[in-house]
Amino acid sequence: MARVPDIIPITDLRQDAAAALKHVQSSKQPVVITQRGRAAAVLLSLEAYQRSEHELQLLRLIARGEQEIAAGKGFDLDSVLAEADALLAGGPK
User: Fold this and answer.
1) Do 29 and 3 touch, CB atoms closer than 8 A?
2) pTM, to two decimals
3) CB count, 10 Å around CB of 30?
4) Within this chain, do residues 11 and 39 fall inside the same structural domain, yes or no?
5) Which long-range contacts (CB under 8 A, 24 or more apart) does 44-47 make?
6) 12 and 36 in one domain?
7) Of the candidates 28, 11, 29, 31, the residue with the CA atom closest to the CA atom of residue 20
């Protein structure tokens, strides 16, 4: 079951940004910032942002590989696995 995101109105964020940051860092969950009752932004911990960016890079590599395979290009499996192992070992920066 999907978790309901935490929501903070922008006025609460303005009044106590430090508390909002503390909450994001301790919960490890994103917080949706609303403005006039509508979602306007998402506040993430640095760790969550870096993890998300790392995962996005991996997905882009996979998509590029699929395009290369479809075009008849590519690399041998051992080279691909070695590069993937190196990326996974490095983790988010």
Assistant:
1) yes
2) 0.64
3) 17
4) yes
5) 47/92
6) yes
7) 31
Q: CB within 8 A of 47, min separation 6: which ones?
A: 28, 92
Angstrom CA distances, 21 to 7, 14, 25, 37, 91, stand at 13, 12, 6, 21, 24
Structural domain harbouring 34: 6-44
Q: What is the pLDDT of residues 65-91, one digit of tens each?
A: 888 888 888 777 888 889 889 988 876
Could you report the per-residue pLDDT of 21-68, keeping only the tens digit for each?
Answer: 999 999 989 999 999 999 999 999 999 999 999 999 999 999 998 888
